[in-house]
Inverse folding.
């Protein structure tokens, strides 16, 4: 746990503030978000971000599952279509009836096996991208928790000051003067 205390100046007297501030540890927030998505956001006190995290993971997870289901149909269609075209298996086989997608069955019936293989490869590529998207969403969850924990201790009060002074020594050195 990181603690900080503030110095309060009151009418020329300096007094220690008895209240201590708690700032979340970025490492703990990162580890918690890596274990369970959204746990780091809850640890940081930003509970409103949890639905966003789960929406991102849910959408990418749904994308993966829907592509996986369609890929299995296309893969089965490619195998069964190859067997039917090469006359190794009759069209009324059990595997043919396992194909639920009517478009795949129609392509096999018309002898368009190249079309089924093309879509199988394309959906496989999308399936790989879906895994990547899910991993990126999970990593963004961890990074966001860490960055948010780091920025909790950042002072944004209006009492910040900025003082600009000229460095005359370096200015004189550039002008060619020697002390």
């Amino acid at each position: 746990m990181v603690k900080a205390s503030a110095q309060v100046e009151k009418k020329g007297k300096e007094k220690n503030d008895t209240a201590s501030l708690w700032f979340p540890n970025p490492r703990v927030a990162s580890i918690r978000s890596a274990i369970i998505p959204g746990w780091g956001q809850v640890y940081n006190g930003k509970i409103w971000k949890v639905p966003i995290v789960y929406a991102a993971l849910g959408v990418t997870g749904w994308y993966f599952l829907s592509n996986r289901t369609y890929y299995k149909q296309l893969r089965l269609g490619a195998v069964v279509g190859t067997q039917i075209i090469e006359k190794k298996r009759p069209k009324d086989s059990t595997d043919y009836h396992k194909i639920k997608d009517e478009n795949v069955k129609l392509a096999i019936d018309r002898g368009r096996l190249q079309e089924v293989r093309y879509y199988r490869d394309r959906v496989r590529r999308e399936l790989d991208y879906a895994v990547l998207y899910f991993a990126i969403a999970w990593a963004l969850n961890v990074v966001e928790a860490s960055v948010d924990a780091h920025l909790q201790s950042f002072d944004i009060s209006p009492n910040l000051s900025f003082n600009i002074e000229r460095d005359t020594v370096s200015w004189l050195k550039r002008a060619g003067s020697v002390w």
Q: What stands out?
A: The radius of gyration is 31 Å. Residues 25-152 form one domain.
